[in-house]
Every structure is written in structure tokens, then in C-alpha cells.
Amino acid sequence: MQTVEGSQKHRKKPTYGEVDLTKPVSKSQYAKMDKELYGDTCFGREWDMETRECQMCHDSEMCGLICHTRLKKMEAKLDQEVKKLDTLDFDGIKQSQLFMWLKAEQRTSKELLEKVKSMSNCTDPTVIKAWTISFIKADSRLSVQNKLVLVR
């Protein structure tokens, strides 16, 4: 921790980089502090009050605030990058029609995935596969064996 000369009474005030710790810290100052951290890999990154190190640390509150801010930023970034499974993508699929299509002739699991893809608004193969698996598990008349979709 550094100290700077105060304008009144010339006493030294505790600071964290350019942030004066004798005054309330704003969120914009957290970002400054985050960049000026000790170079420590722990502070503001691995905050956990159940660990002995965090319980004994005198900066635990500040660390927790910085860690919370960091996690919120990461969460916002991930929400933008990751496409969420949206049930609206599969609302266009009439399950009864899909079942009749399967019943008409024996189909492979690959054909079923292609059919679900064409009937839905979704293009993500992982999400399509997850929805198809849940569709098969939900209907006791359907099963998959040797890559064939069987209808009972």
C-alpha cells in the first residue's frame, strides 16, 4: 500500500494506486484498482471467505468487491458470446407430425436430426441434438438402437 501527502495537516493517507482509500470507492475506481493490483494472482480473482487465507486477509472486502465486479463483466461477456437454448426455436415443431413422420418408415438418428433442424429455427447442432434426445426420452413409444429410431 502506498501513501500520499494530504493537503490538510500534511498527514499521509492510505491509497491503492491513484485511489484514496479514506473515501468511498466508486465502481469506476474499482476498474482502476483492478489494473493496478499488486501483480498478485489471488487478489480480486479467487475470493472465497471460506478459505483461511481470505479470512485472515485485511483486504477481503475490497477483494470481494473487485471479484464481484470482475465476475459480472465476465458473465455479461459470456451472455453475448453464448447462444442460449431458447424453447421458441422449437415451438414451430409439431411433435405429432414428427412422430407420424417417424412412424411412416424406419429412419436413422441422422435423418431425425436433419428433420428437426429443418422444422426448427435453430442451427446449432448441439442444441438440436439436445432437444431431439429430450423429445425421444419424453415419448415412451420412441427409442434408438444402432443409430435407428424405433417406433413401438
**Alpha-carbon Rg, integer:** 28 Å
Strand order of the largest sheet: 1-2-3
Strand elements, count: 6
Q: Helical segment tally?
A: 6
- Kindly give the count of domains: 2
What is the terminal separation in angstroms?
A: 72 Å
Structural class: alpha+beta
Low-confidence stretches: none
Provide the succession of SSEs. Answer: EEEHHHHEHHEE
Helix content, binned percent: 40-55%
- Proportion of beta-strand residues: 5-15%
What's the overall average pLDDT, rounded?
76
Report the biggest beta sheet as strand number plus sense, adding barrel if it closes: 3 strands, antiparallel
Name the shape in a single word: elongated
What distinguishing features does this structure have?
3-stranded antiparallel beta sheet
Describe, in plain words, how this protein is organized in 3D.
The model has no long low-confidence stretch (mean pLDDT 76). The protein contains six helices and six strands, in the order E-E-E-H-H-H-H-E-H-H-E-E. 8% of the residues are buried. It has 152 residues and is of the alpha+beta class. Strands 1-2-3 form a three-stranded antiparallel sheet. Strands 4-6-5 form a three-stranded antiparallel sheet. The protein is elongated, with a radius of gyration of 28 Å. The chain has two domains: 80 residues, no CATH class; 65 residues.
